[in-house]
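Journal club prep — side note

Before the paper discussion, L.F. wants everyone to see what a predicted structure for a comparable chain looks like in token form. Sequence:
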Amino acid sequence: MHGCLHEFTSSILTLQPRLVGPLCCKAFLRIDESCWPKIFPVNLAFPHSLKNYCVVLQGLPQALPPSYTTNFDVVPNLMKGGEDKD
């Protein structure tokens, strides 16, 4: 998109995702995440901040972080308040 290089550069240099407008955010969201380390080699955390900003700006639903479950069967005696004898 015309002007996106300038917006991305300004945003990266100042660490301010809000400098990227809606059209450039739309273009950014189309970039596969596996390409981010090649595009943003200096600050690998910035693309995630930019993505979060762009998702909100575009009004898209945010992805939920992966859920983690605990397998309580691994330590059944500890869960009952007893000692694990194994």
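L.F.'s comment for the group: The longest helix spans residues 46-58. Keep this in mind when we get to the figures.
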